Amino acid sequence: MNWTTFGHKKAIQGVYKAYLANRLSHAYLIIGMQNVGKTTFALDIAKLVNCTSENKPCSECQNCKRINANTHTDVSLINIFSDKNSATSGIDELREAFIAKTNRKPFEGVCRVFILQSIDSMRVEQSNILLKTLEEPPEDTIVILLAENMNSVLETIVSRCQLIILDPLQESEVLEYLTTQFSIDDQVMLKNILKLSQGRIGRAIKMINDPKEIDYLNEVMGNFLGIFQFSLIEKFDFSQEIALKLQKNRLQTINEIHLWLACLRDLLLIKSGYEHYNDHEDYVRVSNDLSFDQILNTGKAIEETLSLLALNINPRLTLDNFMLRVHQSINLQSAKV
Ligand SMILES: [Zn+2]
Predict the structure, then answer these.
(1) 211-336: CATH number
(2) Which of 85, 231, 251, 305 is deepest in the core (most CB within 10 A)?
(3) How do the domains of the chain map onto residue ranges?
(4) To 10 degrees, what angle do helices 187-197 and 250-271 make?
């Protein structure tokens, strides 16, 4: 066996057991944050069912190689998000890919696999086509849907799929991956990658390939850190900025909001005496200014904000509400002192 997926042992075991028992589902819904390994895992499933070696997935046979190179005719990788933004409507493509192709037998492999990325951003028409396909599962076909947040997926779709949740990996797992796959001598860079990857191998690889990514992620955290010094008006300006960014690039902005949690984690670590995790003066200062409760409450407010955004609640209102909560929490505390 040669799974490309690193970590996620429970998910791998679950799928492998089902495969051995000939009980694979015709539809899977994989939920997990961006770059956590959803596509890699879905491609591993495609290899598992199409591999011609004994130890499946081998990653070496013709089928596995073609799937890895994205040239296998029976494995389709469709990104709903880019379809949505392209000039040509993705709906026809999806209909063609789904209804026409699923009706014929696998061409070169054993099983046709459709991997649909960013199901969260699917339009209603697209959802309906998908729903129809899931209602009448074609033979020799597995549909794997990928999404960041289950709340954004129609319940009727969720109920027709076997659910797989990919949680972020432990920091020790990411470290193990980095030290076995790469040689990173720069300890500061390694520390940054571990922290900023937030348990996502895909993001760690992105940072290794493009160190500018580290600067960008640090900048996002630094910008967020600024809000603790802002007046309420400045906080609302910031939420307007984020709401506009959400309109332009939803996925990226949601990920930036996730990074706010990494920023709070640093504040908590510094506050607990682990200043070596992040000895940047701004972080140390803000950490000293805030109480444990204020940091924890801000984290809770971020998580609630992310849930509301996933439900498509008005972004500006949601973010303003978040800023107001942070502002009140800080001012109430100061009033007590
Ligand atoms: Zn193989």
Answers:
(1) 1.20.272
(2) 305
(3) 9-165, 211-336
(4) 120
